[in-house]
Amino acid sequence: MSDSVLIDWEQLEMIFGEEDEEFDEDMAELFHEFVEDGKGCLENLKAGSFDSDKDSLCRDSHKLKGSSSNFGFAKVAKALANIEDNMAILTYEAFKASLSEAESAFHESTEEVTRKYLALQN
């Protein structure tokens, strides 16, 4: 998988199955919870204080990185890993750039997945 891959479709097929398989409604519910939690986590990251709340920013980055990886949101996970792994040396500008990349990729990934898996549209 290249660094620019938005979604790990193989990971999603492990969760949702292939297109010709019956769709698992429990997994759809988990996906919707992931999206809602992810939006909240991104808001927390944007609202956190870079100067005084780095531990919290690392925890939120770690949490969303893991769940993003589980749902195949590869580009989101990569941007958040940069924050988590490098918080001690990141400049504010680099933090904001990685966060912006994660947020943009999160929304783009959500749209792509719901376009492919019509059962997720509701």
Annotate the secondary structure layout:
Elements: H1 9-16, H2 25-47, H3 54-70, H4 74-86, H5 92-116
Work out the helicity level. Answer: over 70%
Q: What order do the helices and strands follow?
A: HHHHH
Radius of gyration: 15 Å
Q: What's the total number of strands?
A: 0
What number is the mean pLDDT?
92
Q: Unreliable runs, pLDDT <50, ≥5 residues?
A: none
- Gross morphology is elongated
Quaternary structure: single chain
**Count of helices?**
5
Task: State the end-to-end CA separation.
Answer: 30 Å
How would you sum up the major sheet? Answer: none
Percent of residues in beta strands: under 5%
Number of domains: 1
Class of secondary structure makeup:
mainly alpha
Write a concise synopsis of the structure shown.
By secondary structure, the chain is mainly α. The protein has helices at residues 9-16, 25-47, 54-70, 74-86, 92-116.
What features would you describe in this structure?
By secondary structure, the protein is mainly alpha-helical. The chain has one domain. The chain contains 5 helices and no strands. It starts with 8 loop residues before the first helix and ends in a 6-residue tail after the last helix.
What key attributes describe this structure?
70% helix, 122 residues, mainly alpha
